[in-house]
Amino acid sequence: MKTIKNIFRAVRADMGGLVTYRVMPSQEVAIDDLEPFLFLNHHGPQTYPSRNRGLPFGPHPHKGFETVTFIVEGDIVHTDSTGYNSKIEAGGIQWMTAGKGIIHSENSSKEFLANGGNVEILQLWVNLPANLKNTEPAYTGLQKDDIPHIALDEGKVVADAVSGEWFGQKGSLQSIADVHIATIGFQKGGKINVDIPEGRTVLFYVIQGKLNVNNEEVNKLELVEFDTENGEIQVEAKENSLLLIGHAKPNHEPVVAQGPFVMNSEYEIEQAYQDYQRGKFGSWKH
Fold it and tell me: What are the coiled-coil residue ranges (predicted)?
């Protein structure tokens, strides 16, 4: 079995009226501790009333990494400076490669603004290696039914294979940096074993419920840090649960993050700000 090094609890850090838990980075987890996984915010769960203002994520730039957004409940309308515009609903994901620079917004739909409803959303930032930081920006939105659902343990466990390969089945996406990500839903008593190749960083965050993980209890809002040795992760659900899991090879490069940019040096951060101010991230026409 893989060794658990630490278990960290997310910290409450609301944003513009949106209930938010900062999973990482935090006072306990440095931005490069689980590189290439850099940043994870867990928004909600909460209920918005009718005639609400929706999500507080207006147009803003990014460069040098990828964002993966998981819609557990509610919806998100993504728009960006390359022309993409898509509404993704509960169970879906949004995968955006910021690459050499993009401007995007994430807002609630007109229907949600009018009628309200439940919201639970996670956003993950995944670093890109230096040779991919200036790749062309891209976006893919997947609805729930676009993602393979893999039934395990006689149907008591269902894995949604977002990217890479899980339990012998390819995910919806094959990332440019070989990042494997899934969400896994458990009924109480459901069990799985997950083999992670040696040398890869594991992302393991409990969104909902309570799990027994390699003989240790892990509750909702908790992030598990494993060693990078080859080994198995044994998971059993103590109650109905939802898990975010991923693995990727660390880049072993300097991580310099400032605001919405993640590069390898202070000079590159300064250049990113200059490129944004000069309109090199595209124009906002929405």
Answer: none
